Amino acid sequence: MGYTRGQAVCYAAAYWDKVYDDGYVATLGQPGYVKQTAGASLLELSIPHEEDCTHFVSRCLGRFGSGLSIPNGSYLPRGILSAPALVLLSRQEIGAGSADRREDPQSGRLGLH
User: Fold this and answer.
1) What is the pairing mode between strands 101-103 and 110-112?
2) For the chain, what percent of residues have pLDDT higher than 70?
3) What SS3 state is found at 68?
4) Which of 45, 70, 72, 105 is the most exposed place for a label (fewest CB within 10 A)?
5) What's the pLDDT tens digit per position in 33-85?
6) Cα distances (angstroms) measured from residue 55 to each of 15, 106, 108
7) What is the helix (H) or strand (E) element at residue 10, kind and residue range?
């Protein structure tokens, strides 16, 4: 599955202020996330120690966002909560630093050229 920037942007625009499609919000401390209603307004919720940036980016890049293969194991929340793990996976999926991988201007997909 390839990366499509436009789909990532659409997912980000749809969920920037809402609980993501998996229904979880990452937090500091244990267990590291809280269950919420998917699509609920984050601006109206009071979630102590919310720390959801990496989770948000992993959802934007994943299957429902841009199409990358972000792990969605049986654990919750779906996606990745650790920034270093997300960077490593992104490099593996996109091939960061590879001179022969570029985005196709017509499809918006990243691929070998």
Assistant:
1) antiparallel
2) 73
3) coil
4) 105
5) 889 999 999 999 988 888 888 888 888 888 777 777 776 655 556 677 777 88
6) 12, 29, 23
7) helix 5-15
Residue with tokens 């699509």: 39
Which residues fall within 8 angstroms of residue 90, CB to CB, at 6 or more apart? 61, 68, 96
Q: How are beta strands 33-35 and 101-103 bridged, if at all?
A: unpaired
* Inter-helix orientation angle 53-61/5-15, to 10°: 140
Q: What are phi and psi of 90, to 5 degrees?
A: -60, -40
For residue 8, what are the CA distances in angstroms to 43, 59, 77, 110?
A: 22, 9, 19, 13
What is d(CA 109, CA 81) in angstroms, rounded to the nearest whole number? 25
